[in-house]
Write a structure and sequence with these properties.
Length: 157
């Protein structure tokens, strides 16, 4: 993937951001079924994209709010429309990245293969919380883990 700029934001448009992904960036999208991601995004599982913190910047942030959802983790959202935007961790192994809510990216052009690769999950976290018959069918070949990466060693599920 060549260097590219990707834009996104919240539903009402009062928070906008820009990603300038470096050339050679290897997509690191994943899903998460932890309780906090479910409640924070209002969906049965969240879709996130890990990006270098230095490649992400807000271009409009008049209604941006941060929320400390756990001792090491912060979520950002729009106070006007409630749109979930980012998740970040202060853990040593993750402090240089920010996770972007994939649903907040602007629409891709039909047939955009590079964007499709960017959105494709490479890992599924908190599979121990799967809902049988509803969210347990993520059998796309991506690595599946019982819990998440901030808990230390990942345990295959």
């Amino acid at each position: 993937m060549s260097s590219s700029i990707i834009v996104g934001g919240c539903l009402c448009g009062k928070v906008r951001y820009e990603l300038c992904l470096p050339e050679g960036y290897s997509p690191k999208a994943h899903t998460c079924q932890c309780t906090q991601c479910r409640k924070g995004t209002g969906s049965l599982f969240a879709n996130w994209l890990d990006v270098p913190r230095t490649s992400f910047k807000y271009t409009v942030s008049s209604t941006l709010k941060s929320y400390k959802s756990s001792p090491l983790c912060t979520r950002e959202f729009c106070t006007e429309c409630g749109g979930s935007l980012t998740w970040s961790s202060e853990a040593e192994s993750e402090k240089n990245t920010v996770e972007i809510n994939l649903g907040s990216l602007d629409e891709a052009a039909p047939g955009d293969q590079a964007r499709a690769e960017l959105l494709k999950p490479h890992m599924h976290y908190y599979c121990e919380n799967e809902i049988v018959g509803v969210t347990d069918n993520l059998n796309d070949g991506a690595a599946r883990f019982k819990q998440g990466s901030t808990l230390g060693e990942l345990m295959p599920y």
